[in-house]
Amino acid sequence: xxxxxxxxxxxxxxxxxxxxxxxxxxxxxxxxxxxxxxxxxxxxxxxxxxxxxxxxxxxxxxxxxxxxxxxxxxxxxxxxxxxxxxxxxxxxxxxxxxxxxxxxxxxxxxxxxxxxxxxxxxxxxxxxxxxxxxxxxxxxxxxxxxxxxxxxxxxxxxxxxxxxxxxxxxxxxxxxxxxxxxxxxxxxxxxxxxxxxxxxxxxxxxxxxxxxxxxxxxxxxxxxxxxxxxxxxxxxxxxxxxxxxxxxxxxxxxxxxxxxxxxxxxxxxxxxxxxxxxxxxxxxxxxxxxxxxxxxxxxxxxxxxxxxxxxxxxxxxxxxxxxxxxxxxxxxxxxxxxxxxxxxxxxxxxxxxxxxxxxxxxxxxxxxxxxxxxxxxxxxxxxxxxxxxxxxxxxxxxxxxxxxxxxxxxxxxxxxxxxxxxxxxxxxxxxxxxxxxxxxxxxxxxxxxxxxxxxxxxxxxxxxxxxxxxxxxxxxxxxxxxxxxxxxxx
Length: 490
What we know:
Tripartite tricarboxylate transporter TctA family protein, 490 residues, 22 helices, single chain, DUF112_TM, globular, transmembrane, mainly alpha, 2 strands
């Protein structure tokens, strides 16, 4: 109770609540604008956290994180273009409903499903995060090494394109963390004789370049060949209670799938959406209507992708392992504010963790309210001239890359990463494994070397930790089961 009262007193101030509402507004707008996405929305807001309090920074980023995932459904329903990859499955039934003159009802279903999925995952987060953080104190170097191997394997497994491309991306991310000084010996590695690289690469400029700048460059490449979208005015209409009641099992099933997939490090909402949609199509009594404007399809997509928000925060807050691309940025914000996710956060700053839970709940409520009142407004915003929008993203991205360390080299790194991101997109290589591999790289190397030192260089002895063996066994299943299923199908 003491932590709760302290959290309420610190997170219920006017400044914190204003930061949360601004974050929700920006997240909803960024999610509704095709091509922006959750990570880009978080990155654009990153420079504003310098000088903000810890509570305001957390509120701002949680507001953006929650509503940007939901915002993608608006453009998916109205213009047949998902604002975020997480809403790709929303198009399948949302746009047919809009074409049938039920755009307001489609937005109502999407908003309700997003709210239920978000609240469900929050309840799981409140229960699971402290328990997992308490258990994590017993994790030695071998166990943490095994968890990171599992996380990187999950990223590769669900990566767009192929598992090999995902593993390659994760390996590149791990290698990028070795540039600069060695944390154990202090020796400089892989600086290629460049003075600027002796301090190593910062995660944030690389993250900004690979996601935000690459999106600007990619859209610029196709600007003259793209066709303007026909945006129509819409409203908001909640579905009848009878329709909601008969679809209660679908709400629950999709929320469970989204939360579980979100807990798996590195998977993200896009994978959860398609898993949930496929399961809904398999089990729904109205399966023959899928693709024609069936609310079950909207529920499956939107409840699962918003349930990922709470699920992905479980490994992020409890273990310091980002659950998806958005939580990588959130992890960076916590580090900037001097907080260490995991056991230290739960035990030394429990009021901060409790406050984050409160802000996540309020963010879901604000998201529902904004969805109910802003349908017509955001349908007009979708018509904003693209050059203006991309110019603003470019400006905020470069500023964000510079202010992290105040080093002009980071701006160059950001631009180079942006160009590399465009090349990767054309080659259909996933970007998320690179970023998450880089976020986990330092811990991965440190724990591996610490464990090997304690085991006197014997890798077999290093892996005799029962927790590590269990996690590596689970990793083997993640790799082998899909392969065996494909072989059996052939």
